[in-house]
Amino acid sequence: MSVIELIQSDITQLDVDVIVNAANSTLHGGGGVDGAIHRAAGPQLLAECIKLNGCPTGEAKITKGFRLKARFVIHTVGPIWHGGNSNESNLLESCYRKSLSLAVENNCFSIAFPNISTGVYGFPKELAANISIREVQTFLFTNKSIKKVFFCCFDSENYFIYLRLLNKLS
Ligand code: ADP
User: Fold this and answer.
1) Residues contacting residue 34 through CB under 8 Å, at least 6 positions apart
2) CB 44 within 8 A of CB 37
3) Segment 13-67, tens digit of pLDDT
4) How far is CA 41 from CA 34, 144, 167, in A?
5) Which domains are seen in the chain, by residue range?
6) From CA 167, how far away is CA 144, in angstroms rounded?
7) Following DSSP, what letter does each residue of 57-109 receive, concatenated?
8) Would you say the pTM of this structure is higher than 0.85?
9) 100, exposed or middle or buried, with CB in 10 Å at 0-12, 13-18, 19+?
10) Atom of ligand 1 nearest to the CA of 116
């Protein structure tokens, strides 16, 4: 039974313990997946986010899921792509690692990730996919409490990149 699963879906519809939000550092909501999550979770999500006082790039913070099926939302701030020499890869790695750690601390067994930073933040999709897969696998190797990790792709380009990379591994 595979722990990692690939799906093409709107992440707000998933019935998992926690979904991850690709937020911006204010945590006050935005476009893309962030906007979709806030719309689906309802206004209480923004109220809780405002109390968190923002989040630095590469870090993660957790809130409740409110109207979502997911019990929690982990808000992580991916790096903006500046060409690759601004620590972007390490920061993206950190987003996945810290989100998984927070999920474990909050007794979550299933978690879904969007393709962090690959929208308006401009991170190259293939590189981001490689980083995310490697980081999740490394984490799962030592942390056995997470039973399911979904890579939830929205756009087909990301979906087919993950399909190819994950098929190579199996
Ligand atoms: P970032 O600022 O981190 O680049 P975006 O929200 O612009 O964040 O894009 C991140 C990824 O989220 C993109 O690959 C985009 O296709 C995807 N995305 C947008 N809406 C949704 C959604 N409802 N569910 C899942 N993924 C989504």
Assistant:
1) 21, 22, 23, 24
2) no
3) 999 999 999 999 999 999 999 999 999 999 999 999 999 999 999 999 999 999 9
4) 11, 29, 33
5) 3-169 (3.40.220.10)
6) 22
7) TT-EEEEE-TTSSSSEEEEEEPPPPSSS-SSHHHHHHHHHHHHHHHHHHTT-S
8) yes
9) buried
10) 3
The verdict on whether 34 is a catalytic residue reads yes
The 3-state DSSP class for residue 154 equals coil
Contact by Cβ (8 Å): 67, 40: yes
- Out of 10, 15, 17, 34, the active site residue is 34
User: Residue 119 — very low, low, confident or very high, per pLDDT cuts 50/70/90?
Assistant: very high
What are the residues whose beta carbons fall under 8 Å from the beta carbon of 77, sequence distance 6 or more? 22, 23, 24, 25, 55, 56, 57, 58, 59, 60, 95
Element (H, E) at 111: strand 110-113
Query: Could you tell me the two tokens for 132?
Result: 């995310």
Length of the chain: 170
- pLDDT of amino acid 169: 77
Out of 154, 155, 159, 162, mutate this one to test ligand 1's pocket (max ligand atoms within 8 Å of CB): namely 154
* pLDDT for res 168: 84
